[in-house]
Amino acid sequence: MSDDDATSARSRLSVTRREALAAVGGAALAAPTGTTASAVAADRRDPVLVRVCPGAVPLQARLRYGPDALRGDWPRPLRDALAAVESAFEQVLTYAGERERLADLEVRVEPGPSIRFPPAEMPLSADAVVPSTETLLGRFRDRLRERNALTDRSCHLLLHWSPLNYRVGYGGTVSPNALTGAADGGDAQTVANVGATEVWDSRAVTRNIAIHETLHTFLSSDIVDDLGAAVCDHELGAAVRTAPDTLRISPMATAYAGPDRIGGGTRFHGTGCYDHDRFSRHDGTEGIENWTYTTELSEATLEGVTRYLEDHLER
Ligand SMILES: [Zn+2]
User: Fold this and answer.
1) Which class is domain 3-223?
2) How far does the chain reach from its first CA to its final CA, in angstroms?
3) What is the Å distance from ligand 1's center to 93 Cα?
């Protein structure tokens, strides 16, 4: 890749970085509309926004992250999740830039509004105690609408803290708002249950699940179909044996690379479809005792997201 390509990929994200730091530092959040539009050249379409929204983190949970985490919307695990999503799009834009693709598209990762669900608004049902992904994302969408945060071409990721919510699991998306820029207003909502990944697994899993749930909204089945043998998004991921007893897992394969049982890789196995034989690479689980995670996207994932951005958001 030329230095120019690398520089342009980086400069597209550097704005984002500054905004992220400003918001994390407690400055006012950027206005959801207007500000972003005026920052774009007049002959370009609005940027694609990936907005990472912090949910409520209870005090008991914050205590484990030290005194700094007691206040504010961004305790360490949430900040690390935001940085991971940024790094994923940095990788995609670098990959695309090296191939002179996505030249006309701006993608920005930025902190979104903090999301709170007042208990009083919850209906009295099982869904109030343990909301399903559908209920949670519906309520998330209502909050975004109230704040005028829907733009027609944004992905909104909720960093949710609910370690015991087995219905949401590690997270997910729900149709018809599962793809960015596709249906019903064009905004996608997705949730990463960082409470679950933190309590049951590790920070590395938190990072990868934040990326995983975001990228689901930038991977459509027609494009995944076109990429080799994959029939679902998870199969674009990679699980690489780095030592005889160690497997290193990429974001889209996270929670799907191990055997389907408690403690197979992540503490809980993902519930969506997958077949290890169709992964872009899977070196097998026999003899594996150490499960490690990398935020580095597999080439199949980079290609899939790039193609999605080209087909659905650039043209
Ligand atoms: Zn998934």
Assistant:
1) alpha beta
2) 24
3) 22
